[in-house]
Every structure is written in C-alpha cells, then in structure tokens.
Amino acid sequence: MVAKQDDFYPLFVFQNLDEQENSLLRYITVTLLPNWNGKIPEIGEIGFLSCEYVDAGEEYYQRSTGNTEQYKYTSCYFLNFIKEQEKQQITDYKF
Description:
By secondary structure, this protein is mainly beta. It has one domain (3-83). The chain is built from no helices and 7 strands. It has strands at residues 3-5, 11-15, 27-31, 47-54, 59-62, 67-70, 75-83. The strands form 3 sheets. A 3-stranded antiparallel beta sheet has the order 1-2-3, with no helix packed on it. Strands 4-7 form a two-stranded antiparallel ribbon. Strands 5-6 form a two-stranded antiparallel ribbon. Strand 5 and strand 6 (67-70) form a beta hairpin. It is extended and about 50 Å long.
C-alpha cells in the first residue's frame, strides 16, 4: 500500500507490482466500506490484495439486514489484504 485517505469511506492506493511503470493499471484505488471488521493494511506493506469492481445499480446481499440492495456508486471495494510472508523451507513433515 502506498497511500490512504481516512474518511467515513477510507480510500487505499495500492501499487500493482506486476504492471509496467507507465501502465494505467499500475495503481489501484479501493474503497473500504464502513462495516469492515478485518485488519487494515499499513502504508509500505507488501502483499496480495483482493478487491471487487462493481457498477452502480448492481445488486448485493446485505448480510446485516438480510435484504438485497443495489450499489449506489461504481467503485472498486476492498475485500482483503494478505501481507507477504517469507517462504519457509519445510524439510520434515510430522504426522
């Protein structure tokens, strides 16, 4: 993650390390919804981002109410971030 903007709907900016420097997909901005309960990444962390692109008007299931609702805005929503970890060399398996 390279930047964040705190607000009711926080924005995170991630650098896509698989894209070329001049690519339009080099940076991805995602919106964190206010009901998020998981770990929030810190600036400078490297890892793997899951996000979902949605269009205004698409339906989704609102778990807290049990109703189907529609997205109000076209956006890319933050789903999860898994921090990159050092690979471990496992040579002995204990069953």
